[in-house]
Amino acid sequence: MLRLAVPKSYNLVLLVEYDLLFFLSKVQVIRQLTKLSRRGRVESVDSTFRADVLGGLSAKPKRLACKYFYDERGSRLFDAICGLDEYYLMRTELEIMHRFGPEMARMIGTGAMLIEFGSGSSVKTRLLLDQLENDNTTYVPVDISCRHLQITARHLLQRYPHIAVRPVATDFTADFELPSLGSKAERRVVYFPGSTIGNFEYAEAVALLSRIPKLCGARGGLLIGIDLQKDVCTIETAYNDAQGITAKFNLNLLARINRELGGNFNLTRFVHFAFYDTANARVDIRLVSCRDQNVEMGSDEFEFRAGEPIHTEFSHKYTIEGFEQMAAHAGLRLERCWTDDRGYFAVLYFGAGGTNGE
Ligand SMILES: C[S@@+](CC[C@H](N)C(=O)[O-])C[C@H]1O[C@@H](n2cnc3c(N)ncnc32)[C@H](O)[C@@H]1O
Questions:
Q1: Fewest C-beta in 10 Å: which of 11, 37, 69, 307?
Q2: What is the mean predicted confidence (pLDDT) over 301-316?
């Protein structure tokens, strides 16, 4: 059964039920998914996008939320960033996953529902799914980038015929419904790689993490990847690559506003700017206006002074102890920690005990 649902509680949620597909041959799976893309309209139109952009460009200083980087083009550009030599984050986390994936899979256990926040292309997840394939696992990739999620889910279905893949396209910062699995009492574990948590300021991060015990129940857990503090040069180089892909990724936000909201940003009049703010242990990413200029978006107009920034992203860098303390405020208990030899990145497993939302 294939079901495309758009619950009222959130902007656009794609729940794809793969119960029967699970038993179909690969050819049938592809046929069913092709039908889904023809029948179900999977759009990236988000009614809050316009309101958030209007609010952000009217604020002082101007800002845009980083979740809006990820339309289809943004997701592809992020994948390109992940392949860059300078972007140690992807390489290092993958190295940890290759080395310790089997141990992590054992902590997730059999019969689990693995729920990934911000799944993107699910590249690291494959190292877990390789281990979990015969364990009656359900994989729920959750991402705001609908089309990219759909394509990734299609690939995963083909590669893991024994795993129930049930994508949910939504904003994970708001409550969302998990796909129903009938009365099956599975264990739930949230996987949150890529140091995406680093995009959130302290209070926002605690609020987001606090929802995990509720989502997972007392027997559940959180497996999370975090970027660690290190020398400034390594960090800044990762966000200022020589090929300018990160700049393109940042500027795509303005291009997206032009495409979807009728903006008239001239992309040659803004530059990407990323620096490490040592006092706050975070990379601060901006788009800076090259000159005095006015930009229109429908009937609204915004004035920019030369040198004026639009803040687009933070990427916080942690210590393991600092992150453990922050997670404790969210009711999470550190159980295991895996790092690479240089101590660049860490993957942590937290028990969700305490609050029980079930
Ligand atoms: C930094 S990328 C990480 C991708 C992948 N997990 C990895 O580790 O390579 C962040 C991912 O989270 C998604 N994302 C960002 N903010 C989101 C939000 N508020 N709700 C749902 N997905 C979000 C993006 O579309 C993107 O795929």
A1: 307
A2: 98
